[in-house]
Amino acid sequence: MQRRDLIKTGLGAGIALGAGVTLPNRVFAQPMAGNARDRQLFDIAKRELDKAGDVIWRKDIVGIADFGLHSAHRRFHFVNLDRQEVKSFHVSHGTGSDPEHDGWLNTFSNVEGSNATSRGAYITWEWYTGKFGTSVRLGGLDPTNNHALQRYIVMHRASYAEPEHVERWGRLGRSNGCFALGEEQFKIALLNLSGGRLLYAEALGLQEDGTQAYPPLPIVGEPENGYHILRQPRQETFEQTNPGVY
Hints:
It is a single chain. 22% of the residues lie in helices and 22% in strands. The strands form 2 sheets. Strands 3-2-1-8-4-5-6-7 form an 8-stranded mixed sheet, with helices on both faces. It has a two-stranded antiparallel ribbon with strand order 9-10. It is globular, with a radius of gyration of 17 Å.
C-alpha cells in the first residue's frame, strides 16, 4: 500500500480527520539547542513528514529508529518539532535482522515470516491489547515496509528491551521485527508517539557529534527490485567510531 493510498481507505480517511478538511502547512523552527546529530534528526523528521503529506495528521513529534547503531545505544529518537528537542531511548530489532545476535542489524526485510525489521516510514495507529499487553499498531507507508500489518509489526514493551539488559549482556534482546521498548520507555512512546504520528526506521548510524558509526558488516536493504547494500563497513575506523563495541 502506498502512502497516498492510505487516504483512500476507510482507515486512512478516518485518520485524515474527515474529507474536505484542509490543514494549514506547519512551519517548524530550527532547534535552538542540541548536538550535531539532533540537527540532522530535525532535518530528517521534516523531510519524512513532507513525503508523507496528509497521511500523517499529528506532526508535533516524529520517532526515528536508527538501526545503523548497535543495540546497546539509545537509538530511538523522539524528535519534538514543537519544543525543539530530541529524547533518545533503547529499541530492539528483529531476530531475522541479526541472526548472530551480536547487537548489530545486518538486514532489513519486508517478507512475512522473516522476523526481520523493515525500513521506511510508518504511521502509528490505535492501541490494542496483545501478547505483550498494550501495543500500538503500525501501518507501513513505503514499498520496503508495506506488509507491516500482515506481519503484525507493532510497537510494544518487552523485558529484553530494558536498559538493564544492556548492562548485563552488552546488547538488547531481539524481537520478531517489532519495535520493542522497555516498560518505562514504552509508556513514554504510548503517550507521545501513537495516534497518527510518523515513525521512521533506517540505518543512519548517527552519533552525537554528527558523524556516522560504521557497522562490522554491510547493512543490506530489501527494496522491491532486490537486495542492495545500504551501509558499508570501514574496518580501519570501526574501533575508533565504536569504542568498546565489537
